[in-house]
Write a structure and sequence with these properties.
Helix content is 46%, strand content 20%. By secondary structure, the chain is α/β, with parallel strands linked by helices. The strands form 2 sheets. It has a 6-stranded mixed beta sheet, with helices on both faces. Strands 7-6-8-5-9-10 form a 6-stranded mixed beta sheet, with helices on both faces. It is globular, with a radius of gyration of 22 Å.
């Protein structure tokens, strides 16, 4: 009896300690790790969506860019961090669903990360240099067949944009060489300079370049046409069905992070995302706030894992 009582008291003490921890959290700065360089899409998402999060929680937030290995360096760093709510990943479909299907990893993001708060969704477009006489994906396929070996495509390797080009080539039979890039800026610069003719990138990055006439959009991945480009078809309308329409961004924590700490983070981030200033800032980037409950976020990421695995299989992409 004494031993049983001791066990019960120990459990109660642990639970009480967890509650005090959540009540006091945070007592020192929260570190949000971004898998890509400063000034890039992920970094921008982190800064826009978490601005004021520290104040909402009664603490402070530090954003740390940790680029390298296509997002794998930062993701592994967070999976190895203490599960106490003080290290978070600004993760996306890339790190959670695509990377595990492309690479042999010494960590498992699905098992070792806990989805915390869904933030925003973004879509992509396939674009060409304006000198190319095509205005749709079907016209691009015809041109590629009429000029075999003449077209070169390129994008950041191992992420959504790379898969879009490979999926397009496999699904519609377009003959194009693919050039791998380490980031979007050099790929876009080369597309604008006509060093490559075809690329793909995120809406938040492409819109200013398209509006300036530096690149021409052929199709967008979203389920509906972009309001800013009403004449540009969606992938599905262009005959490229089966490709996921959006890329999700959200905060993720090491697995086993206390549920009460996660709920406190969710409540604070939800308040920020629903504020007019954050919503307006996200809209200016060409993105949409994507507020979900923790369970819905988990479910949607599960769908992403399944969908991207199918895309990778159909596109025949293999990376070491």
């Amino acid at each position: 009896m004494t031993r049983c009582l001791a066990v019960v008291l120990a459990v109660v003490a642990v639970a009480a300690h967890g509650s005090v921890r959540a009540q006091d959290y945070p007592v020192h700065p929260i570190r949000i790790v971004v898998p890509y360089p400063t000034g890039g899409q992920a970094d921008t998402v982190a800064r826009v969506t978490t601005e004021g999060l520290g104040a909402e929680l009664g603490g402070s937030v530090i954003i740390e860019d940790l680029p390298g290995a296509g997002g794998r360096l930062a993701t592994k760093d967070v999976t190895r961090a203490a599960a106490d709510g003080y290290t978070l990943l600004l993760g996306s479909s890339n790190e959670y669903a695509i990377t595990p299907a492309l690479y042999k990893l010494d960590y498992d993001p699905v098992k070792e990360l806990a989805p915390v708060a869904s933030l925003v969704s973004d879509s992509i477009a396939i674009v060409v240099n304006p000198s190319l006489p095509v205005h749709s994906l079907k016209e691009l396929v015809v041109y590629a067949k009429e000029h075999p070996g003449k077209l070169t495509s390129g994008a950041t390797v191992g992420i959504v944009t790379h898969l879009a080009l490979m999926y397009f080539r496999a699904h519609m039979g377009a003959d194009m060489l693919f050039v791998p890039y380490k980031g979007a800026p050099p790929a876009l610069s080369d597309a604008i300079a006509n060093q490559i003719q075809v690329t793909a990138s995120a809406k938040s990055v492409l819109l200013p370049l398209i509006k300036a006439g530096k690149l021409r959009a052929l199709a967008v991945s979203s389920t509906a046409r972009w309001p800013e480009l009403p004449d540009v078809q969606t992938f599905r309308e262009a005959g490229l069905g089966g490709f996921p329409g959006e890329v999700l961004f959200g905060l993720m924590a090491p697995a086993s992070t206390p549920a009460d700490v996660i709920l406190k983070l969710v409540a604070a981030e939800d308040a920020r995302l629903r504020s007019p200033e954050v919503g307006g800032a996200v809209a200016k980037l060409g993105m949409q706030t994507h507020v979900l409950s923790p369970q819905d976020f988990i479910n949607e990421l599960g769908d992403q894992v399944r969908l991207w695995k199918a895309v990778i299989t159909e596109a025949g992409v293999h990376l070491d």
